[in-house]
Amino acid sequence: MTEPAAPKTHAEANRLRKDIVLGEATDETRLVRFVAGPDGVGVPDVARKLPGRGIWVGADRDSIATAAKKGLFSRAAKTKLTVPADLADQVEALLARRILDSLGLARKAGTIISGYEKVVAALGTGNVAWLIEASDSAEDGRRKILSAARKAPKPPRLLGAFNSDELGLALGGENVIHTALLAGRGVDRWTQDVERLSGFRPLLPPEWSANGREDG
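Request: output the structure for the sequence above.
Response:
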């Protein structure tokens, strides 16, 4: 097995945390932090802000299941720690809410564009970091906008993990189908959260292929 590369800077070293399943230092952006709650229950801390000693686990269902099955949460906490059966579901819900809330903040900051024509125009500038397409979007409109995304000077990444109602609640609108998140401040952290979410749910509906084209 290849040894992980040593951190190049002090800042990189400070981002490394011990994954209790792998037993090795891993970038915290690929992990989920947990803490021991006052009632002796493991609590997910996706924002990494809760007080207490952090317990770090890979951001995916299998890692959480393995840590629970082998008693690794209690071992890391050095005390008996109860792990809820739905812990992975809790993490998924918290990450999803964090991602959607961040989109709401991006809208207020002016880095979100919604609506077919506006999004297509933004794609043409090459300044779109993410194309966020409602999972329940109509096939015809989706095909057209994904085609525009592939032809963009800098094709964006694609997210289709939320439906139009979820996007509408986050962005304060109705029938939100096509949304563009512009490149800029805050996108890297948002991307990290989306990548962590991918360990718990597909980022694209099953009928979409990974490259943005629909299967079939």
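The helical segments are 10-14, 61-69, 72-77, 87-109, 116-123, 139-150, 164-171, 187-197.
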